[in-house]
Amino acid sequence: MRIPDAAAVSSVGSAAYEDEGPVLVHRHAIGQTGMMENSGLCLFCDEEPFVLSPTPPPPPARASPSSSPPPSMVSSAAVEDRDVMLHDLLRREHRYLPCHGYSHQLHRSSYLPAARTRAIQYIVLVCNRLNLATGTAFNAVNYLDRFISMTCTVRWEAWMMELLSVACLSTASKMDEVFMPSLHDLQV
Predict the structure, then answer these.
(1) 166: which residues sit within 8 A by CB, 6+ positions away?
(2) What are the distances in angstroms from CA 41 to CA 11, 16, 23, 76?
(3) CB contact set of 161 (below 8 Å; sequence gap of 6+)
(4) CA distances from 151 to 82, 128, 146, 165, 169 (A)
(5) How many Cα neighbours within 13 Å face the side chain of 74?
(6) Would you give the DSSP letter of residue 12?
(7) Residue 168, Cβ neighbours under 10 Å: how many?
(8) pLDDT single digits (tens) 97-129
(9) Counting beta carbons within 10 angstroms of the beta carbon of residue 146, is it exposed (0 to 12), middle (13 to 18) or buried (19 or more)?
């Protein structure tokens, strides 16, 4: 591909150049094959070559990051908004914890502690096998405990705990992992 010099491009319109060879598009040239090739020019759609639009003035120089404004200059509305949000998050935090007395409820059952242990072993095994993040395993166990604590009246069976552990691991991987494993990959 040939790229003309600046004088030739400025004297020739884009339509004339299009007839001669590739059409120039933002930092790439589209050749006769329709494929984009690297180009040193930076043009947008139908702009004339080498005609620059005015650049906006540079932003005013800011003080160095280490010299932040003193706390007295921070807006009181911003501080109040931050305090309201923090208070709201702390107020709602209890909804995301296992129910009160979960540990006692867990050990009162004859089947539940062993089933929970097997579910956690499964979660750790799959996380290791698939190289999932440690946080994924912690979140999966957290989801498992939260669900068990909300359903204290359920008579747990083995298949229920297995299904719950797969669901918790799948949900945790959707939240934490960049590439989520398929349900087929979660089988042991």
Answers:
(1) 183, 186, 187
(2) 16, 17, 11, 49
(3) 115, 116, 118, 119
(4) 35, 29, 9, 15, 18
(5) 9
(6) S
(7) 23
(8) 777 777 777 777 788 888 899 999 999 999 999
(9) middle
Phi and psi angles of residue 36, each rounded to the nearest 5 degrees, phi first: -85, 135
Give the angle 44-49-53 at the CA atoms, nearest 5°. Answer: 65
Tokens of 72: 């007295």
Distance between CA 42 and CA 29 in Å, rounded? 10
Annotated domain spans of the chain: 1-50, 96-176
The pLDDT value recorded for residue 144 is 92
Spatial contact of 186 and 170, defined as CB atoms under 8 Å apart? yes
